[in-house]
Amino acid sequence: MDIILVPGFWLDASSWAEVTPPLVAAGHAVHPLTLPGLESADAPRAGIGLRTHIDAVVAAIDAFGAPVVLVGHSGGGAIIHGAVDARPDRVARAIYVDSGPLGDGGVINDELPADGDAVPLPPWELFEDEDLTDLTDELRAMFRARAVPEPRAVAQDRQQLSDERRYGVPATIIACEFPSSLLTRMIAEGHPYVAELGRVRDVEYVDLPTGHWPQFTRPAELGAAILAAVDRTA
């Protein structure tokens, strides 16, 4: 099966390098994406918004003849959900890695400090302790050295959705910072943060306790969790 991997903010396709080996070994074709504006520190970011990134994922979906699996980490979860809305009949499963589907009118994070058209990786002090679980000093240095500024409009643009068939696409939530039991309780309580997730009809939850970047802190376990979800889909 073709698996399209969408990184979160500040990351490119190479961020999935330690996650993909079990997927490849199982015979799946993996397609990690570098989204527009993330090609390098010097890449132009003006005019690149959330829809630009969604369209890039849709173009990747359209390159294949059979339904694909989408995997989105962090802000990439909002992006793959936009692609699910655009191509609900072409996505066999959407896998959200420490993320979830962003509903119509929502924004990924408009509170991140911007510098012109870019949002650089903030100082670690601006993140919550739960974000940084297991992210050692060595991993932090590696992450910061490879981080590419995110196009500002991707973080601030409002999600635009139109096809309710998106709720019929099976989803997997890989919960890292907070346990899945918290998410299901929030859904039961009608919390607006999970309102869109609560409308998806087929959702499975997988707990992978670590911080916000499991592709760095627990890559083998993340690869195994994605593989298990893909195999259940196939």
The residue-averaged pLDDT reads 97
Spans of at least 5 consecutive residues whose pLDDT stays below 50 are none
Number of domains: 1
CATH superfamily: Alpha/Beta hydrolase fold, catalytic domain
What strand order characterises the main sheet?
A: 2-1-3-4-7-8
Task: State the CATH architecture.
Answer: 3-Layer(aba) Sandwich
Order of helices and strands: EHEHEHEEHEHEHHEHH
Helices, by number, come to 9
- State which percent range the strand residues make up: 15-25%
Helix content: 25-40%
Keywords: Hydrolase
GO molecular function: hydrolase activity
Organism: Arthrobacter humicola
Domain AB hydrolase-1: 3-222
In words, what does this structure look like?
- With 234 residues, the chain is an alpha/beta fold.
- The protein has a single domain (2-233), classed as Alpha/Beta hydrolase fold, catalytic domain (Rossmann fold), CATH 3.40.50.
- 41% of the residues are buried.
- Helix 1 (21-25) links the parallel strand 1 and strand 2.
- The model has no long low-confidence stretch (mean pLDDT 97).
- The chain contains 9 helices and 8 strands.
- The termini are close together.
- The radius of gyration is 16 Å and the shape is globular.
- The strands form 2 sheets. Strands 2-1-3-4-7-8 form a 6-stranded parallel beta sheet, sandwiched between helices. The chain has a two-stranded antiparallel sheet with strand order 5-6.
- The protein has helices at residues 21-25, 50-62, 75-86, 137-146, 152-156, 180-188, 195-199, 214-217, 219-233, and strands spanning 2-6, 29-32, 68-73, 91-97, 118-119, 150-151, 171-175, 203-207.
- This is Alpha/beta hydrolase.
- GO terms for molecular function: hydrolase activity.
- Pfam families: Abhydrolase_6.
